[in-house]
Write a structure and sequence with these properties.
3 domains, binds flavin-adenine dinucleotide, Butyryl-CoA Dehydrogenase, subunit A, domain 2, about 15% strand
């Protein structure tokens, strides 16, 4: 199959490339390259967001009147590809790519007017309050409850694994408003400012040593009913719609191609008993397999982009894309760790963390490998675990 871009698309690619060459400073690129967590550091992501907002390129998928670009699927693909190649920081998707589509479909005009511009300007920074202790895969069993009291709901309970809750000033939350109904039927979707009295955030430090996730506690938290998205007790429909964007709203293949290039650069420098690692047939075969799978994913993602541009949601195919991209990413990180061998140990033993060493022990390319390897293990759990995605694929894609 031959994929050719039109002259107009090539001109657009050049426009994006020139923009990145000017606006993405070496310092921002370096910081993005050193990111080992799922999301970029908040300050870095917000600096980049402001630059893209100024250019009008921050939210290509939004309707034009709210700041969208009206790009074709090919242009969106080219933009993502060039950003990945240039190592631009990722924008934080929690508001821009997850809550925003929900507000476009289910929000009131007032909610759209209030929240969307503030999301874009960075005045509001969102986190996602879905999971609870005991309610992750079986999300509809969630117990955080909201009881009506005058014009408010009073919310009590706890959310867990809440990414960036320690940075966020708003949380979108699933709460139980009817304990007597079937689990899915008694859920409501609320928007809650994090400075509301009664909210407490506690850190959870991960295997990689990062503070990225938290537990959030709600103790008699008053939330105006005007902050509800969609009707009371119909939040499950809203919640599921958002999950489609969490799992499939963006393309992973351009980033994976960059990571494959990094892997090959490492394998070119490292050796095994027989010589240069990249020339080892066994190691080379494993890289080739990942390149082929990445190419297949790229085409699946282009089909997904075409669906979005027709106004359709990503659909259950996003589960397939999520499992595939996570699997490839984890395999790349495994090969990188195998390639750097003993240079992976300083991080694993926490020797390199918290400035205990004056400088990194080993080649610069080895510095982030172990942290990325450990952090990427979480990708087969968040956004719905691998097994849960397989259940969705079995039912909704294969019709089993
Ligand atoms: C780094 C990270 C960031 C996260 N960020 C957020 C966030 O910002 N907001 C948020 O709300 N949540 C977040 N999560 C939570 C995430 O969505 C849940 O961890 C996930 O849904 C799994 O739920 P659980 O942890 O309760 O595991 P469980 O649901 O208890 O699953 C345990 C194991 O059982 C398997 N399993 C469960 N049910 C089935 C089944 N029906 N069939 C087959 N196997 C099954 C699972 O695959 C898994 O291996 C995050 C998680 C991580 C790791």
């Amino acid at each position: 199959m031959k994929l050719e871009f039109s002259a107009a698309d090539e001109a657009f690619r050049e426009e994006v490339r020139s923009f990145l060459a000017v606006k993405l400073t070496p310092e921002m690129r370096e910081a993005a390259c050193r990111t080992t967590t799922v999301f970029a550091d908040k300050d870095l992501a917000m600096r980049w967001q402001h630059i893209l907002v100024e250019k009008g390129w921050a939210v290509p998928a939004w309707p034009r009147e709210y700041g969208g670009t009206d790009w074709t699927p090919t242009q969106k693909y080219i933009f993502g590809e060039q950003c990945a190649k240039a190592r631009a920081p990722g924008l934080i998707p929690l508001g821009l790519r997850m809550l925003a589509p929900v507000l476009f479909r289910y929000g009131t005009d007032e909610q759209k007017r209030h929240y969307l511009p503030r999301m874009l300007s960075g005045e509001h920074y969102w986190c996602q309050g879905y999971s609870e202790p005991g309610s992750g895969s079986d999300l509809s069993s969630l117990k955080t409850n909201a009881v009506r009291d005058g014009d408010d709901y009073v919310v009590n309970g706890t959310k867990i694994w809440t990414t960036h809750a320690h940075f966020a000033d708003h949380i979108f939350c699933l709460v139980r408003t009817d304990a007597g109904a079937k689990p899915q039927a008694g859920i409501t979707f609320l928007l809650i400012p994090m400075n509301t009295p009664g909210i407490k955030v506690e850190p959870i430090i991960t295997l990689a040593g990062d503070h990225e996730v938290n537990q959030v506690f709600f103790d008699d938290v008053r939330v105006p009913q005007a902050n509800r998205v969609g009707p009371e007790n119909e939040g499950w429909t809203v919640a599921k719609y958002l999950l489609e964007f969490e799992r499939g709203g963006g393309g992973a293949s351009p980033r994976l191609k960059v990571e494959l290039d990094e892997l090959k650069a490492i394998a070119r420098r490292e050796t095994d008993a027989d010589g240069v690692l990249l020339e080892d047939p066994g190691f080379g075969k494993r890289i080739a397999e990942l390149e082929i799978r990445t190419r297949a994913l790229e085409f699946a993602e282009l089909v997904g982009l075409a669906r979005l541009s027709r106004g359709e949601s990503p659909g259950p195919g996003s589960s397939l894309a999520k499992n595939t991209s996570v699997d490839i990413e984890q395999s790349i990180n495994t090969l990188k760790l195998e390639a750097i061998q003993h240079y992976g140990l300083p991080h694993a033993n926490f020797i390199s963390l918290n400035g205990h060493n004056e400088r990194w022990v080993g080649p610069a390319y080895a510095e982030t490998v172990t942290a990325r390897y450990l952090n990427s293990r979480a990708a087969s759990v968040f956004g719905g675990s691998k097994e849960v995605q397989k259940n969705i694929i079995a039912k909704a894609v294969l019709g089993l």
